[in-house]
Amino acid sequence: MTDKLTIHKFKRSKVFTILNVTVETKSKVDEISKMTGVPRVDVVASMIDFAIKHLEIVDDDDE
């Protein structure tokens, strides 16, 4: 057994931009980030990707 900590360098393949959310939403995302150890930017990206894939748009005029 060796007493080494190995850290692998990586580059993000995506470019990120600012997204405005409420203070309450940011707090919830921060909590999830802390619980999982996943950076906030990755938590938000995953949530938005999931939401887009499961989105249903309803035209209220058709009802």
Structure summary, number of beta strands: 0
**Helix proportion of residues, in percent?**
40-55%
Largest sheet: none
Poorly predicted regions are none
Computed Rg: 18 Å
Count of helices?
Answer: 2
Strand-residue fraction? under 5%
Could you give the order of the helices and strands?
A: HH
Shape: elongated
The average pLDDT value, as a whole number, equals 85
- Structural class call reads mainly alpha
Cα distance spanning the termini? 67 Å
Concise summary:
The chain is mostly helical. The chain has helices at residues 23-36, 40-53. The chain is elongated.
Key structural traits:
single chain; 63 residues; mainly alpha
Q: What does the secondary structure layout of this molecule look like, with pairings?
A:
Blueprint (H helix, E strand, L loop, with lengths): L22 H14 L3 H14 L10
